[in-house]
Design goal:
alpha+beta; Deoxyribonuclease I, Chain A; 14 strands; DNA-binding
DNA sequence: ATGGCCTGGGTACCAGGA
Protein backbone atom coordinates (compact mmCIF):
# COMPACT_ATOMS: atom_id res chain seq x y z
CA UNK A 1 0.00 0.00 0.00
CA UNK A 2 1.36 3.35 -1.06
CA UNK A 3 -0.06 6.49 0.58
CA UNK A 4 1.10 9.94 -0.49
CA UNK A 5 0.57 13.48 0.78
CA UNK A 6 1.20 16.46 -1.46
CA UNK A 7 0.45 20.16 -1.12
CA UNK A 8 -0.06 20.99 -4.81
CA UNK A 9 -0.56 24.78 -4.50
CA UNK A 10 -3.63 24.77 -6.80
CA UNK A 11 -4.93 21.54 -8.28
CA UNK A 12 -5.99 23.25 -11.51
CA UNK A 13 -2.59 24.90 -12.00
CA UNK A 14 -0.91 21.55 -11.16
CA UNK A 15 -3.21 19.08 -12.93
CA UNK A 16 -0.57 17.99 -15.46
CA UNK A 17 1.95 17.27 -12.67
CA UNK A 18 -0.70 15.42 -10.64
CA UNK A 19 -1.61 13.22 -13.63
CA UNK A 20 2.11 12.62 -14.18
CA UNK A 21 2.43 11.60 -10.53
CA UNK A 22 -0.49 9.15 -10.74
CA UNK A 23 1.07 7.61 -13.86
CA UNK A 24 4.55 7.26 -12.32
CA UNK A 25 3.60 6.15 -8.79
CA UNK A 26 0.10 4.60 -8.96
CA UNK A 27 -0.62 5.51 -5.31
CA UNK A 28 -3.37 3.68 -3.41
CA UNK A 29 -4.26 6.99 -1.78
CA UNK A 30 -3.16 10.50 -2.73
CA UNK A 31 -3.89 13.17 -0.11
CA UNK A 32 -3.89 16.66 -1.60
CA UNK A 33 -3.80 20.10 0.02
CA UNK A 34 -4.25 23.65 -1.25
CA UNK A 35 -6.44 22.50 -4.11
CA UNK A 36 -7.64 26.14 -4.37
CA UNK A 37 -10.86 25.48 -6.25
CA UNK A 38 -14.59 25.70 -5.74
CA UNK A 39 -16.57 22.44 -5.72
CA UNK A 40 -17.64 23.15 -9.31
CA UNK A 41 -14.04 23.68 -10.42
CA UNK A 42 -12.74 20.39 -8.97
CA UNK A 43 -11.23 18.47 -11.95
CA UNK A 44 -13.04 15.19 -11.28
CA UNK A 45 -13.30 14.22 -14.97
CA UNK A 46 -9.56 14.48 -15.63
CA UNK A 47 -8.79 12.40 -12.55
CA UNK A 48 -11.42 9.84 -13.49
CA UNK A 49 -9.90 9.51 -16.96
CA UNK A 50 -6.66 8.60 -15.16
CA UNK A 51 -8.52 5.89 -13.21
CA UNK A 52 -8.96 7.78 -9.93
CA UNK A 53 -11.94 8.94 -7.94
CA UNK A 54 -11.94 11.67 -5.33
CA UNK A 55 -13.48 12.86 -2.09
CA UNK A 56 -12.91 16.54 -1.57
CA UNK A 57 -13.58 19.55 0.63
CA UNK A 58 -13.27 22.55 -1.65
CA UNK A 59 -13.57 26.12 -0.42
CA UNK A 60 -12.72 28.32 -3.39
CA UNK A 61 -9.50 30.23 -3.90
CA UNK A 62 -7.92 29.36 -0.54
CA UNK A 63 -7.03 26.01 1.06
CA UNK A 64 -9.02 22.97 -0.10
CA UNK A 65 -8.20 19.29 0.60
CA UNK A 66 -8.90 16.03 -1.22
CA UNK A 67 -8.33 12.27 -1.14
CA UNK A 68 -7.81 10.37 -4.40
CA UNK A 69 -7.91 6.58 -4.77
CA UNK A 70 -8.04 4.22 -7.74
CA UNK A 71 -11.54 3.36 -8.89
CA UNK A 72 -12.61 0.07 -7.33
CA UNK A 73 -10.72 0.57 -4.04
CA UNK A 74 -13.95 1.48 -2.26
CA UNK A 75 -13.26 5.13 -1.51
CA UNK A 76 -15.97 6.53 0.77
CA UNK A 77 -16.28 10.01 2.25
CA UNK A 78 -16.17 9.76 6.06
CA UNK A 79 -16.04 13.32 7.40
CA UNK A 80 -15.78 16.85 6.03
CA UNK A 81 -14.29 19.53 8.29
CA UNK A 82 -13.14 19.37 11.89
CA UNK A 83 -15.35 19.98 14.93
CA UNK A 84 -13.99 22.94 16.84
CA UNK A 85 -11.94 24.58 14.07
CA UNK A 86 -12.20 28.37 14.10
CA UNK A 87 -13.30 28.79 10.48
CA UNK A 88 -15.07 25.65 9.21
CA UNK A 89 -15.55 27.23 5.77
CA UNK A 90 -11.81 27.20 5.12
CA UNK A 91 -11.77 23.58 3.80
CA UNK A 92 -8.78 22.17 5.69
CA UNK A 93 -9.81 18.63 6.72
CA UNK A 94 -11.36 15.68 4.93
CA UNK A 95 -11.53 12.00 5.94
CA UNK A 96 -12.21 9.01 3.71
CA UNK A 97 -12.31 5.26 4.16
CA UNK A 98 -10.54 3.06 1.64
CA UNK A 99 -12.51 -0.10 2.15
CA UNK A 100 -10.34 -2.54 0.19
CA UNK A 101 -7.33 -1.54 2.33
CA UNK A 102 -9.18 -1.33 5.62
CA UNK A 103 -7.81 2.09 6.49
CA UNK A 104 -9.13 5.55 7.08
CA UNK A 105 -7.12 8.43 5.70
CA UNK A 106 -7.35 12.15 6.49
CA UNK A 107 -5.95 14.95 4.35
CA UNK A 108 -5.21 18.10 6.32
CA UNK A 109 -3.99 21.62 5.60
CA UNK A 110 -3.18 23.22 8.94
CA UNK A 111 -3.69 26.99 9.31
CA UNK A 112 -0.48 28.88 8.43
CA UNK A 113 -0.69 31.34 11.33
CA UNK A 114 0.92 34.33 9.57
CA UNK A 115 2.56 36.12 12.55
CA UNK A 116 3.16 35.17 16.17
CA UNK A 117 0.47 36.71 18.35
CA UNK A 118 -1.93 37.32 15.44
CA UNK A 119 -5.52 36.13 15.27
CA UNK A 120 -4.58 33.58 12.57
CA UNK A 121 -1.87 32.25 14.91
CA UNK A 122 -4.46 31.70 17.66
CA UNK A 123 -6.61 29.93 15.07
CA UNK A 124 -3.67 27.72 14.15
CA UNK A 125 -3.27 26.54 17.75
CA UNK A 126 -7.03 26.01 17.99
CA UNK A 127 -6.94 23.98 14.77
CA UNK A 128 -4.14 21.74 16.11
CA UNK A 129 -6.16 21.23 19.29
CA UNK A 130 -9.28 20.28 17.31
CA UNK A 131 -7.13 17.89 15.27
CA UNK A 132 -5.85 16.22 18.45
CA UNK A 133 -9.43 15.80 19.69
CA UNK A 134 -10.37 14.14 16.41
CA UNK A 135 -7.25 11.96 16.34
CA UNK A 136 -8.16 10.63 19.79
CA UNK A 137 -11.67 9.77 18.57
CA UNK A 138 -10.11 7.76 15.74
CA UNK A 139 -7.38 6.15 17.84
CA UNK A 140 -8.92 2.66 17.61
CA UNK A 141 -8.91 2.40 13.82
CA UNK A 142 -6.07 1.97 11.32
CA UNK A 143 -5.46 5.57 10.28
CA UNK A 144 -3.12 7.68 8.19
CA UNK A 145 -3.27 11.45 8.71
CA UNK A 146 -1.28 13.16 5.99
CA UNK A 147 -0.85 16.75 5.11
CA UNK A 148 0.78 20.13 5.38
CA UNK A 149 1.09 20.61 9.14
CA UNK A 150 2.70 24.06 8.79
CA UNK A 151 4.91 23.04 11.74
CA UNK A 152 8.50 21.79 11.59
CA UNK A 153 8.56 19.21 14.42
CA UNK A 154 12.25 19.65 15.34
CA UNK A 155 15.09 22.08 14.65
CA UNK A 156 16.50 19.24 12.49
CA UNK A 157 13.54 19.88 10.19
CA UNK A 158 14.64 23.48 9.51
CA UNK A 159 17.54 24.38 7.19
CA UNK A 160 18.73 27.20 9.48
CA UNK A 161 16.90 27.56 12.81
CA UNK A 162 18.59 30.94 13.45
CA UNK A 163 16.60 32.38 10.52
CA UNK A 164 13.33 31.36 12.20
CA UNK A 165 13.73 33.12 15.53
CA UNK A 166 10.45 34.87 16.22
CA UNK A 167 8.78 33.14 13.29
CA UNK A 168 5.88 30.74 13.05
CA UNK A 169 6.25 27.02 12.23
CA UNK A 170 8.97 26.38 14.82
CA UNK A 171 7.60 27.58 18.17
CA UNK A 172 7.25 25.25 21.13
CA UNK A 173 3.50 25.98 21.23
CA UNK A 174 3.03 24.79 17.66
CA UNK A 175 5.30 21.79 18.15
CA UNK A 176 3.46 20.79 21.33
CA UNK A 177 0.15 21.10 19.47
CA UNK A 178 1.41 18.78 16.75
CA UNK A 179 2.89 16.30 19.26
CA UNK A 180 -0.51 16.13 20.97
CA UNK A 181 -2.10 15.04 17.69
CA UNK A 182 0.33 12.13 17.42
CA UNK A 183 0.20 11.19 21.09
CA UNK A 184 -3.59 11.30 21.49
CA UNK A 185 -4.16 9.57 18.15
CA UNK A 186 -1.56 6.86 18.77
CA UNK A 187 0.23 7.96 15.59
CA UNK A 188 3.87 7.95 14.53
CA UNK A 189 5.67 10.31 12.15
CA UNK A 190 6.52 7.79 9.41
CA UNK A 191 9.47 9.66 7.93
CA UNK A 192 11.07 10.32 11.32
CA UNK A 193 10.55 6.72 12.47
CA UNK A 194 12.49 5.40 9.47
CA UNK A 195 15.05 8.23 9.34
CA UNK A 196 15.73 9.33 12.92
CA UNK A 197 18.65 11.65 12.15
CA UNK A 198 18.22 12.76 8.53
CA UNK A 199 16.97 16.05 7.17
CA UNK A 200 14.12 15.38 4.77
CA UNK A 201 12.62 18.64 3.61
CA UNK A 202 9.24 18.78 1.88
CA UNK A 203 8.97 22.51 1.09
CA UNK A 204 11.28 25.14 -0.35
CA UNK A 205 10.39 28.79 -1.02
CA UNK A 206 9.95 29.58 -4.72
CA UNK A 207 12.18 32.62 -4.23
CA UNK A 208 15.91 32.94 -4.39
CA UNK A 209 16.72 29.46 -5.65
CA UNK A 210 15.89 28.01 -2.24
CA UNK A 211 15.41 24.49 -3.60
CA UNK A 212 18.82 24.32 -5.25
CA UNK A 213 20.48 25.91 -2.21
CA UNK A 214 18.86 23.41 0.16
CA UNK A 215 16.89 26.05 2.09
CA UNK A 216 13.89 23.93 3.04
CA UNK A 217 11.56 22.82 5.80
CA UNK A 218 9.97 19.49 6.71
CA UNK A 219 6.38 20.52 7.35
CA UNK A 220 4.48 17.86 5.40
CA UNK A 221 4.00 14.69 7.43
CA UNK A 222 2.41 11.26 7.24
CA UNK A 223 1.17 10.24 10.70
CA UNK A 224 0.47 6.50 10.81
CA UNK A 225 -1.31 4.45 13.49
CA UNK A 226 1.13 2.58 15.75
CA UNK A 227 -0.77 -0.59 14.83
CA UNK A 228 0.28 -0.05 11.20
CA UNK A 229 3.74 1.36 11.82
CA UNK A 230 5.38 -2.07 11.87
CA UNK A 231 4.24 -2.50 8.26
CA UNK A 232 6.10 0.58 6.98
CA UNK A 233 8.81 -0.38 4.50
CA UNK A 234 9.84 3.05 3.19
CA UNK A 235 9.08 6.74 3.52
CA UNK A 236 10.53 9.55 1.43
CA UNK A 237 9.96 12.28 -1.09
CA UNK A 238 10.13 12.37 -4.89
CA UNK A 239 12.35 15.36 -5.64
CA UNK A 240 11.52 15.23 -9.35
CA UNK A 241 8.18 16.89 -8.63
CA UNK A 242 9.96 20.01 -7.31
CA UNK A 243 11.73 20.26 -10.69
CA UNK A 244 10.61 20.80 -14.28
CA UNK A 245 7.58 22.68 -15.54
CA UNK A 246 5.39 24.51 -13.03
CA UNK A 247 6.27 22.60 -9.86
CA UNK A 248 4.47 23.09 -6.55
CA UNK A 249 6.67 24.54 -3.82
CA UNK A 250 6.03 21.27 -1.88
CA UNK A 251 7.10 17.75 -2.90
CA UNK A 252 5.04 14.57 -2.57
CA UNK A 253 5.85 12.54 0.56
CA UNK A 254 5.37 8.80 0.03
CA UNK A 255 4.97 5.98 2.56
CA UNK A 256 4.84 2.31 1.62
CA UNK A 257 3.38 -0.37 3.88
CA UNK A 258 3.16 -4.16 3.62
CA UNK A 259 -0.58 -4.33 3.20
C1' DA B 1 18.25 46.83 1.24
C1' DT B 2 15.29 41.68 4.96
C1' DG B 3 13.48 40.90 -1.05
C1' DG B 4 13.62 37.62 -4.68
C1' DC B 5 8.13 33.71 -6.47
C1' DC B 6 3.56 31.88 -7.34
C1' DT B 7 -1.65 31.53 -7.03
C1' DG B 8 -6.48 33.25 -8.05
C1' DG B 9 -9.32 36.98 -8.85
C1' DG B 10 -9.85 39.90 -12.41
C1' DT B 11 -7.53 42.92 -15.70
C1' DA B 12 -4.26 46.68 -11.39
C1' DC B 13 -2.64 45.11 -7.93
C1' DC B 14 -3.55 42.54 -3.72
C1' DA B 15 -4.03 38.77 -0.04
C1' DG B 16 -1.87 34.82 1.29
C1' DG B 17 1.57 31.66 1.45
C1' DA B 18 5.87 29.94 5.12
Amino acid sequence: MKVVTWNVNSLRARIERVLEFLEVHSPDALLLQETKCSPEQFPAEELEAAGYEAVHHSGGRWAGVAVLAPKGHGLKEAKIGLDGEASPDQARWVEADIESLGVRVASVYVVNGQELGSEPFAQKLQFLSAMADRAEELADMPLVVGGDMNVAPLDLDVYDPSKFEGATHVTEEERAGLRAVAERGGLVDAYRQLHPDEQGFTWWDYRGGSFHRGFGLRIDLLLVSESLSGEITSCGIDRDFRKGTKPSDHVPLIVELNR
